[in-house]
Write a structure and sequence with these properties.
The structure is a single chain. The chain is of the alpha/beta class. It has 2 domains: about 110 residues, Peroxisomal Thiolase, Chain A, domain 1; about 220 residues, Thiolase/Chalcone synthase (Peroxisomal Thiolase, Chain A, domain 1, 3-Layer(aba) Sandwich), CATH 3.40.47.10. It contains 12 helices and 10 strands. The strands form 3 sheets. The protein has a 4-stranded mixed β-sheet with strand order 2-1-3-6, with helices on both faces. Strands 7-10-9-8 form a 4-stranded mixed β-sheet, with helices on both faces. A two-stranded antiparallel ribbon has the order 4-5. Strand 4 and strand 5 form a beta hairpin. The longest helix has 16 residues. Keywords: Transferase.
Length: about 375
């Protein structure tokens, strides 16, 4: 798809989401997009031929789409919109190959960041620093972090759309080139192109849907910091707040969740988010992720498509978390790809939790099978 433009990927994803829903494009009166154009989402809506009366362009990094889903659900519940399309597309990999951009991501040097940029404190360095703090404070090991990458790759093996499906070992992860201590290459997400879309609609449309509905049961959002000096605790992400709110509003507990889709630009993100969502106690994430717990047939399947570490990561990946959770809840995958409960049923409850910036923002959405 190197010849596709970001706009084309937006359009492809939007068409597929509509086809999946079975609804006509005329029902769409709400639109949310971020990351493309000077006046996103106005430019993207125009490209798609839409004239929405409700729009959202909230941009908080990888958590953007969970935050937008929360906004859309609230708008629909309040009667301000009837059908909201969330859509994203990026040619991050193709742009790099063509020389249209470099491998570096810069958020600029204005505002609070001016106090960090002169010292070369890059985005990945911030995550690496946080990981080192967790290792120092709780004894988390590099081998435990590497297990997350190994299990993500194992989940990707059954996903024909994943970029990397070959198995890897803990030794492979530990022996790779160093990117930012303690992260070697395989501790870090891949770079890909990709497009994605989700359509949220009012309950009145359920009888007309082409597939079983998946319900938004509860959402939570939170922001934490921009400068590292204002981050109270490097071992706690804003998912500790967004997760608590989402579970409370959904009326469910973490131990009732059948699968989790978690933003994983780096292995440490998965570990600390699992802690902060309440799947294990703070500091116990290293032990929790062992023994194949995160595999599709594990005790808590996590990133069942392979995640950003193996499947795809075109930039703000949070929308892909929602799509994978929905497809798993519908039970529409082949046997080697589908999560099943111990009794053989498809999963009933899922959580998607996105992270933005360097743990600056979080959006968590609890979803339930119709």
């Amino acid at each position: 798809m190197d010849e596709a433009t970001p706009y084309a990927l937006h359009a492809q994803a939007a068409r597929r989401a509509l086809a999946d829903s079975g609804l006509d494009r005329s029902v769409i009166d709400g639109f949310a997009s971020a990351g493309l154009g000077t006046l996103a989402p106005v430019e993207v809506a125009e490209y798609l031929g839409l004239r929405p009366t409700w729009v959202d362009s909230t941009s908080v990094g990888g958590a953007t789409w969970e935050v937008m889903a929360a906004h859309a659900a609230d708008a629909i519940a309040a009667g301000h919109a009837d059908a909201v399309l969330l859509v994203y597309g990026s040619t991050a990999r193709a742009d790099l190959k063509a020389g249209r951009r470099t491998a570096n991501l810069s958020f600029g040097a204005r505002g609070p960041l001016q106090f960090e940029v002169p010292y070369g404190h890059t985005l990945i360095a911030k995550y690496a620093m946080a990981a080192r703090r967790h290792m120092h404070q709780y004894g988390t090991t590099l081998e435990q972090l590497a297990e997350i990458a190994v299990q993500a790759r194992a989940n990707a093996a059954a996903n024909p759309e994943a970029m990397y499906r070959e198995p890897i070992t803990v030794d492979d992860v530990l022996g790779g080139p160093m990117i930012a201590d303690p992260f070697t290459k395989l501790h870090c997400c891949i770079r890909s192109d990709g497009g994605c879309a989700v359509l949220l609609v009012a309950e009145d449309h359920v009888p007309d849907l082409a597939a079983p509905p998946v319900w938004v049961l509860g959402c939570g959002t939170a922001v934490s910091h921009t400068t590292m000096s204002e981050w109270d605790d490097f071992t706690v992400s804003p998912a500790a707040v967004s997760g608590r709110l989402a579970f409370e509003r959904a009326g469910v507990r973490p131990d009732e969740i059948d699968l989790a889709e978690i933003y994983d630009a780096f292995t440490y993100m998965t570990l600390v988010t699992l802690e902060d969502l309440g799947f294990c106690a703070k500091g116990e994430g290293g032990a929790f992720v062992g023994k194949g717990r995160l595999l599709r047939d594990g005790a808590l399947p996590v990133n069942t498509d392979g995640g950003g570490l193996a499947a795809c990561h075109p930039g703000m990946r949070g929308l892909f978390l929602l799509v994978e959770a929905v497809r798993q809840l519908r039970g529409e995958y082949a046997p080697d790809r589908q999560v099943r409960k111990p009794d053989g049923r498809p999963p009933q409850l899922a959580v998607a939790s996105g992270t933005g910036g360097w743990f600056c923002s979080s959006g968590t959405v609890v979803l339930g099978r119709g």
